[in-house]
Amino acid sequence: MVHQTAQDTMQAAGLYMLREEDATGRGRLLVVDRNWTTTAQSVAAGEVVDCDTTITLSAKKIGE
To answer: Which of 2, 5, 13, 9 is nearest to 51 (CA)?
Structure first.
């Protein structure tokens, strides 16, 4: 999923404590979210969590 879409989906569900990281381990910043694909998240999809739960989204650039 495009990283921006993943963030929008989580925020629509009331989740705003979102962290992001470069899934390749290269430490790059996700400056333009639409150029990245979310590859993992720290909470499983569909899992019920409190709205103050911090969720980490891992992403890599599209095409990598």
So the answer is: 13
